[in-house]
Amino acid sequence: MGTVPSDVGVPVGVDAFTGSLYCFDPWALYARDELTNPNVDLAGVIGQGKSALAKSLALRSIAAGRRVYVPGDPKGEWAAVAEAVGGTVIRLGPGQPSRINPLDVSVAGDDGARGRLLAACAGSSLRRDVSASERGALDAALKTAAARAGCPTVADVVESLMTPDRTVAQQDGIAVADRTLDGRDVAHALRRLVRGDLAGMFDGPSTARISPTCPMVVLDLSALGTDDDAIAIAMTCSAAWLESTFEGTSARRWVIYDEAWRLMRDVALVRRLQAHCKLSRAHGIANLLVLHRLTDLDAVGKRGSEARALAKGLLADCSTRIVYRQESDQLAATQTALALTRSERDLLPLLPRGTGLWRTPSRATVVHHVLHPVELDLIDTDRAMRDEPTAGDDRDAA
Q: Which residue of 51, 283, 339, 387 sits 20 to 30 Å from the alpha carbon of 251, by its own alpha carbon?
């Protein structure tokens, strides 16, 4: 095991074995050829301090000149963090005033990106991949809606799916009746965003605007409650909208999926997330995916399936892996996924709260995350469930 030099990145904590300072910055390490990509996977059982680490990295990275986007906050835990640094919180959900159009794109006429997003959302609702004929109907509907509205909304696309344009259908060599039939299931799936449980969030022009210099943006989805399916689709739409805001800019950003495991249950959403991770270097972003355990990736499909391979590929696209305590029944899978040594595997169930194994291609370090007392009240979401710490405990990671 080794320690990353203390001059690389923001302070995280201390090496549990040597007591030396441990710092981290994925962009700096990538520039030094120590990482193959800037993406990070963070896994650990509930209550071990994963969210505290993510929030601490966000705060310290902002102080170092980075920016932070959280495309979906199902628990409403990130709002206070954003407000503390002068960031923006956009609250979405039933009864909330904000609306964002996930079909906003900075490049005019980029119906390819729009089509991939809508196909992912439709596939998630249908619980299957969109077929070739359905994708043809969707692309035609997007073309029609864009011709009518310039920047279409999901509602515009649903309308075009239900009533296909005759001229566009003829150009594609298909009868209007067949085109209507091809798009029927996709239209019903996307109507969820227009008249279903996600209505009022993504079905009209964007009412929210983000300053390009905003240090942190959080899309608060806590009003959706505990519906994992709805939250996964909402996070996908939110991420697409945020992507459109940082295209063409040079600022380096963390994009933090604090509940990434919610996206792992659907092939279409995993496919989209993996595509986003592969573009991280081009956009200057580092994705941080927070999971409970690495076997969350197994929920995507059966062993040996294309879906399972896709999920494993997502892990491979994270050059840095941080593993907090794992239960004994997770050890074998975690060891295999991360190519851990026997000693590293045996260490995982013994890790105390706030301590994790940091794995990069060149080294492995056990790091105890250290919080500053000023950070504690802001990011320790479990503090109310525990006894008040003594003064000497204030600096221990939550």
A: 51
